[in-house]
Design a protein that fits this description.
This protein is α+β, with helices and mostly antiparallel strands. It has a single domain, classed as 2,3-Dihydroxybiphenyl 1,2-Dioxygenase, domain 1 (Roll), CATH 3.10.180.10. About 20% of the residues lie in helices and about 35% in strands. The protein has 3 helices and 9 strands, in the order E-H-E-E-E-E-H-E-H-E-E-E. Strands 1, 2, 3, 4, 5, 6, 7, 8 and 9 form a 9-stranded mixed beta sheet that branches. Strand 4 and strand 5 form a beta hairpin. The two termini are about 10 Å apart. About 30% of the residues are buried.
Length: about 130
């Protein structure tokens, strides 16, 4: 059901410092920051030959990323994202297998302009999983 790894998302307390580290220290191709108010985050994608890294920074105190950073002040891996061909079919299959889909199960539009869903980390070895329809 799952396809390619789309990205690994890292919550960062200082977005400018993280951008500089990936761009200047690691020599990575860093995209422009974009606000995703529906998700409460500002994101920056770093393009690698085989996947992407998504830097996440909170948009305000109500952001779920702010909650993550309150518990992990230095930042850290927040979630991994896998591609799926049909997000509704994937959702229904996962629910039928006992996995919990976060929220009401209705996909939201993610940073790439595609439908996304998140799966409960307790159902996936402590890892928050995002599914993105490609």
């Amino acid at each position: 059901m799952i396809g390619r790894l789309n990205h690994v998302a890292i919550a960062v307390p200082d977005l400018d410092a993280a951008i500089a580290q990936y761009r200047d220290t690691l020599g990575a191709q860093v995209g422009a920051p974009q606000d995703e108010p529906d998700h409460g985050v500002r994101v920056v994608f770093i393009t690698l030959p085989n996947t992407k890294i998504e830097l996440l920074h909170p948009l305000g105190d109500a952001s779920p990323i702010q909650g993550f950073l309150d518990k992990n002040p230095a930042g850290g891996i927040h979630h991994i994202c896998y591609e799926v061909e049909d997000i509704l079919a994937a959702r229904d299959h996962l629910r039928g297998s006992g996995a919990r889909v976060l929220g009401d199960g209705t996909p939201k539009i993610g940073a790439h302009g595609n439908p996304v869903l998140f799966l409960h980390p307790k159902d996936f070895t402590g890892t928050l999983v995002e599914l993105e329809q490609i």
